[in-house]
């Protein structure tokens, strides 16, 4: 999707009969269909993608109405002021988390109770709307996220052996890469923030915190669907067939 946004910004003809945003939407549909046809995604993962697609689109409808960002080009395929390709961008987050969870065989130690994560995710989502009218509680949400995920280790298998890292660090790193991707997307004028109308500038670091909170929603959605059995590193390696090698 990121390559598509940048390539159409650089090379899509201004005189084309199909608006650029609509072309991106049709390409996004084709990408999703191809992922399923080639079995790169499974139907359980598509459930997560669809939910996150809807969650993201609803937030987009609200945020564009309050002026948080705008889409500077005209589409036909849209809901109000929101082009339909935006839902697929949110779906990318859900797709990424769902696929790496399966491909890298995620296991966890001290995994937080799912009910607590669901409460946090709902509070995060509500705050994205309410902070425009009442106090912004994002710093409290950061603190709760640190308490919940700080003790947790994630174990992932890239070859034959599970390796470990703090889950909180993993979520922060993913949010950082999304923030960097957002800078590329706004450079490609997929959307613009206030202050970027006259020319592109780096996205505020405050958006990095927003992406971290949004990643929590995606992670909890995937965790709810998967309901994976959490294991210790020793159990994870024992459960993994094939020879082990020392690293």
From TrEMBL:
InterPro entries according to UniProt: DUF817
Superkingdom of the organism of origin: Bacteria
Residue stretches spanning the membrane: 23-42, 49-70, 82-101, 113-131, 137-156, 168-188, 208-225
Protein's UniProt keywords contain Membrane: yes
Keywords: Membrane, Transmembrane, Transmembrane helix
Residue stretches in coiled coil: none
Pfam annotation, one family: DUF817
Protein name per the record: DUF817 domain-containing protein
């Amino acid at each position: 999707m990121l390559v598509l946004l940048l390539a159409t910004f650089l090379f899509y003809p201004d005189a084309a009969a199909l608006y650029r945003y609509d072309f991106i939407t049709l390409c996004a549909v084709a990408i999703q269909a191809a992922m399923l046809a080639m079995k790169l995604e499974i139907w359980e993962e598509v459930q997560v993608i669809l939910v996150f697609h809807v969650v993201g689109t609803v937030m987009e409808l609200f945020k564009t109405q309050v002026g948080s960002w705008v889409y500077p080009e005209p589409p036909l395929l849209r809901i109000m002021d929101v082009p339909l390709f935006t839902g697929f961008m949110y779906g990318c987050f859900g797709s990424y988390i769902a696929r790496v969870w399966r491909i890298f065989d995620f296991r966890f130690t001290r995994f937080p109770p799912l009910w607590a994560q669901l409460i946090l995710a709902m509070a995060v989502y509500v705050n994205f709307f309410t902070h425009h009218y009442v106090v912004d509680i994002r710093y409290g949400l950061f603190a709760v996220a640190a308490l919940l995920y700080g003790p947790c280790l994630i174990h992932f298998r890239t070859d034959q052996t599970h390796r470990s890292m703090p889950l909180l660090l993993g979520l922060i790193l993913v949010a950082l890469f999304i923030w960097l991707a957002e800078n590329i997307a706004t450079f490609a004028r997929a959307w613009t923030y206030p202050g970027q109308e006259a020319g592109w500038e780096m996205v505020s670091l405050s958006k990095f915190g927003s992406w971290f909170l949004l990643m929590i929603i995606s992670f909890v959605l995937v965790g709810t669907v998967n309901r994976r059995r959490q294991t210790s590193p020793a159990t994870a390696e024992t459960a993994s067939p094939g020879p082990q090698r020392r690293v």
